[in-house]
Amino acid sequence: MQIEKSLKAALVATGLAVMQQAAAYDPVTTERLLKPEPQNWLMYRGTYNGQGYSPLDKINTSNVKRLVPVWSYSTGQVEGHQAPPIVNNGVMFISTPQNQVLALNAKTGDLIWQYKREFADDVQHPHPTNRGVALYGDRVYLATMDAHVVALDANTGKVVWDTKVDEHKNSYYFTLAPLIAKGKVMVGSSGGEFGIRGYVAALDADSGKEVWRTHMIPGPGEPGNETWQGDHWKTGGVSVWITGHYDPVLNLTYWGTGNAGPWPSDAHPGDNKHATSVVALDPDTGKIKGSHQYHWNDNWDWDEVSAPLLVDIKRNGRDIKALVHPGRNGYLWVLERKADSIDFVDGQPYVKHDVITGLEPKTGRPIYDMSKLLRVGKTVTFCPSHWGGKDWPPAAFNPKTKLLYVPLQQNLCTTLAGEEKIAPYAAGKRYVGTDAAKTRVFPRKDADHIGEVQAWDLDTGKLVWTYNFPDMGINWGPLLTTGGGLVFGGGSADRKFRALDATSGKLLWEFKTNSGITGVPSSYMVDGVQYIAVQSGWGVDAQKMVGRLNTSMKTNVQVPQGGVVWVFAVKD
Amino acid sequence: MSSNRRIVLQAALGTGLGILLPEIARAQDNDPRNARPQTGDRLVYADGDQKGTAIKLDALRVGGPPVTAMPQDAASGAVRDGSRLNQILLVRLDPARIQGETQARAAQGVVAYSAVCTHTGCDGFAWTAEKQMYKCPCHDSEFDPADAAKVVGGPAPRRLPALPLKITDGYVVVAGAFSGRVGVISN
């Protein structure tokens, strides 16, 4: 039996401590993924609907003030620590930059095993991060910076299979946590700045063999190819770098897609389907079963890669199985998910903006101020910034409060300069079409803050509360909400991890960690004790934003690097 | 099973590490395309209309903009384009601006550095004309080509490796090895 073999290998490799953990390891079945136990956090956002909600309520509004760290663990890595601590019955799996995976005792913080990956010298890390592992059976799945997917033995960390999915020399790379459904390990490719043709690929979880691959840019003969000109479909970007969500009733996975490239609008004329969209894929076949483009012919770098949250809402007396997406384009989108389509319901701005002047009422297609289009050889200034109202840090939905929580940047704008002449596509080379030396990011003149958390009532479509970050702090903090009526998130350069009252938005607790937090928080329980866990480790875009704001605001904000796993519990 | 995958599996089974060695393996072969720049190599344009053409001193304007170059083996004529780590940033500066050790490596104001950022390995550097600095497009690290490409801003941990130059018959020619290991050195 495979588990017994693994156990023997573990004993030989690392000793008794491993055996105790391995014996306790509880294989992750399809049924468990469909309905994870409250004490566990089995996938990127906890559940397939992507709500980032833990029903645990032992930590709550009345005792959160007594939340203290109970253990921490240094990852030994710098750069962006963005992965959620994934927990399966007392075993925690952490992924870090450099594609390291740590298996830790979730109660004690002791190491069970460690996987480290060595890269070829020519592998670049344009976004040095990893956003988490996926669990299935007795394996742990990791998507890597050199475009492989690796299956590790959950008991030992040993490689079961390692499949090369794409060619890193062509700047295809993976930063997302895989999505596992129906026995398939699904990953999407980064590389939108390098003229890739983005896709979602599914591998058989058992063998590692590729089962299907669906490109987000339609090829010749495929619906939507007519929205691209010439050969642009071959190199138009449309990356998929955040984990999709899954509706098991419709048997559809939902993926957010990146922008078209090179960035200037006239470098890729047309609507550019399925860029800056949500795309529904059948996990069995990879067939596209519906899509909705949030905005057409993107030229502001507004990737819409966060997969929409699956939420059941009520609008005007009608029950709607909704897809909810706070867009990088500054609009909060509500769509309806159906077996063979995605229909527009509602869209409204949630940050100050000056590009979209309105929506076509039936389709939700944005109308643009055409003077705000980035073009070849032209410079343009627009709001929100090219990082958008909300970039990748995931929003959360609490079924108890029925509120959606959105981490966002208010009051930011960007200046981009289109290159006079964009060099032709060359495999693996940067293919953006802007002069990076001339990019500027700055607050609006009247800005009194930047970072916010907003809470929205999805039934009424109304903003309920806003928490403004102090001291012009930015917010790159993924959110967790809990049955204890709390919203957790970091995201600011002041290194703080915060708990807000989910009903009122009031700040209830904060703690200053080693570095800034852009990690996805999670919650779990072992032996009746609830824990809140998050990685602190600043880097990637948050770091870049601080650097650019230091330039424009003449400040000198510094955030120390270095990853640490933090685990908190309430002190008796 | 591909040979690469076999290597990974074998290595991983032995040590618990996933190890990819194609780059190392290539460095050990005898194909001149895969070797790092050698003394006597001419520099040729890496891209654009003149791709593969030897770069003349007279074609480089003082103060930039820079060009991206590749080394060309003088003996075989092979362009050493087997690795992206061989990309070289070339810019001609006012010789009066060039400082310290860079003076010895420069040839009539032309200075050369690895075009691969020491932070996370990106290339495609932008040029800040007013400051005469290289800027990495990925994370905004800035390097001063007049002063050994030292880091003057952003997250890069160390300067770009420098490549000594000479001018032979009006062409830009490599005069020595890179001053350090190119690319990212990670833990």
Detailed description of the structure:
The complex is a heterodimer of chains A (572) and B (187). With 572 residues, chain A is mostly beta strands. The longest helix of chain A has 14 residues, at 540-553. Residues 1-22 of chain A have low confidence and may be disordered. Chain B has 187 residues and is of the alpha+beta class. Chain B is built from 3 helices and 12 strands. In chain B, the strands form 3 sheets. A 5-stranded antiparallel beta sheet of chain B has the order 2-3-4-5-10, with no helix packed on it. A 4-stranded antiparallel beta sheet of chain B has the order 6-7-8-9, with no helix packed on it. Chain B has a two-stranded antiparallel sheet with strand order 11-12. Chain B is globular and about 40 Å long. The chains are: A mainly beta (572), B alpha+beta (187). Chains A and B meet through strand 7, strand 12 and helix 5 of A and helix 1, strand 1, helix 2 and strand 6 of B.
